[in-house]
């Protein structure tokens, strides 16, 4: 792609040359890079057209002070930091959520192939696109802020694809709790777990470590005691052995992640050593 195929018209609009179509105007949502490699024109389910300009992202430099942060991802609290900060991914407003339910009920009653059904599906797609845009914007801002504030970023190692797998099962062996699992999968996707880690790896290249998540929610970040009873509820962590271990449960897990500590089934500690390699669990001697 040559530079002359993309032009900036003014502060808000630009234009791109599309083969067999000609010049197409687009609204600029960010700075147009000078070294654009290619572009892609797509249309989403809400009927909106997008022009994506491909460019190799440049990593963001850290502060250089050796600071470390741990990130715990959850559903009630989307992101909990070892600093004590608790961040929530933006969702639809109460009014938008109410309208979404009305549209979903209308869609269930609409006749297949009717114009009313197509119109209702488009309205639902627009609400979903609005929520997705807010979440993507939130992820970009949070990942940029963390890449600038900390030199080392440690996140729990999670297989999000396996965690959000459907529980329907097969015809011969149907699953149990399918509706509850579907709701949990939807909440995980709305929190943007995978996209946040992906953008952190792009912006803080080589500075993101993955720590095994085993027992990080049961271990006291103050004294190191591991016990299921330490987790009093979803939000409250109170160590049974020390007074200093009372805090938010997600923040406590984030502090364990920041320390780089992974715990095996027998309670042994393993510490991550390199940002380019995943921490290895120690194997107890036979």
Q: Show unreliable segments.
A: 263-286
Q: What's the end-to-end separation, in Å?
A: 61 Å
Radius of gyration: 23 Å
Number of helices: 6
Instruction: Estimate percent helicity.
Output: 25-40%
Q: How many distinct beta strands?
A: 14
Task: Count the domains.
Answer: 2
Residues in β-strands, percent: 15-25%
Summed up:
The chain folds into 2 domains: 3-54, no CATH class; 65-87 and 149-286, no CATH class. The protein is built from 6 helices and 14 strands. The protein has helices at residues 94-109, 115-149, 160-163, 178-190, 193-203, 249-258, and strands spanning 6-8, 13-18, 22-27, 38-43, 49-54, 68-73, 79-81, 86-87, 152-157, 208-212, 236-238, 246-248, 261-263, 269-271.
Task: Summarize the structure in words.
With 286 residues, this protein is an alpha+beta fold. It contains six helices and 14 strands. The strands form five sheets. A five-stranded mixed sheet has the order 8-7-6-9-10. β11 and β12 form a beta hairpin. α1 (94-109) packs antiparallel against α2 (115-149) and α2 (115-149) packs across α5 (193-203). The radius of gyration is 23 Å and the shape is flat.
Properties at a glance:
3-stranded antiparallel beta sheet; alpha+beta; disordered C terminus; 5-stranded mixed beta sheet
SSE diagram, text form:
Blueprint lengths: L5 E3 L4 E6 L3 E6 L10 E6 L5 E6 L13 E6 L5 E3 L4 E2 L6 H16 L5 H35 L2 E6 L2 H4 L14 H13 L2 H11 L4 E5 L23 E3 L7 E3 H10 L2 E3 L5 E3 L15
Parallel strand pairs: 6-9, 9-10
Antiparallel strand pairs: 1-2, 2-3, 4-5, 6-7, 7-8, 11-12, 13-14
């Amino acid at each position: 792609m040559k530079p002359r195929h993309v032009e900036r018209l003014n502060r808000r609009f630009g234009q791109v040359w599309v083969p067999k179509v000609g010049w197409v105007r687009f609204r600029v949502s960010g700075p147009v890079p000078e070294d654009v490699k290619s572009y892609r024109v797509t249309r989403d389910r809400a009927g909106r057209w997008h022009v994506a300009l491909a460019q190799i992202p440049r990593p963001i430099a850290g502060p250089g002070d050796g600071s470390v942060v741990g990130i715990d991802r959850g559903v009630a609290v989307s992101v909990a930091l070892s600093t004590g900060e608790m961040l929530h991914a933006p969702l639809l407003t109460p009014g938008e959520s109410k309208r979404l339910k009305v549209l979903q009920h209308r869609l269930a009653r609409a006749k297949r192939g009717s114009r009313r059904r197509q119109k209702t599906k488009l309205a639902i797609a627009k609400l979903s696109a609005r929520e997705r845009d807010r979440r993507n914007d939130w992820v970009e801002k949070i990942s940029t802020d963390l890449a600038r504030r900390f030199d080392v970023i440690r996140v729990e190692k999670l297989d999000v694809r396996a965690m959000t797998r459907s529980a329907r099962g097969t015809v011969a062996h149907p699953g149990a709790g399918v509706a509850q699992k579907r709701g949990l999968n939807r909440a995980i996707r709305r929190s943007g777990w995978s996209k946040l880690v992906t953008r952190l790896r792009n912006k803080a290249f080589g500075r993101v470590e993955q720590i095994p998540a085993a027992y990080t929610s049961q271990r006291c970040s103050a004294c190191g005691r591991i016990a299921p009873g330490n987790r009093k509820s979803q939000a409250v962590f109170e160590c049974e052995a020390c007074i200093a271990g009372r805090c938010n449960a997600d923040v406590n897990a984030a502090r364990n992640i920041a320390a780089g500590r992974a715990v095996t089934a027998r309670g042994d500690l393993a510490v991550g050593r390199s940002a380019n390699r995943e921490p290895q669990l120690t194997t107890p001697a036979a």
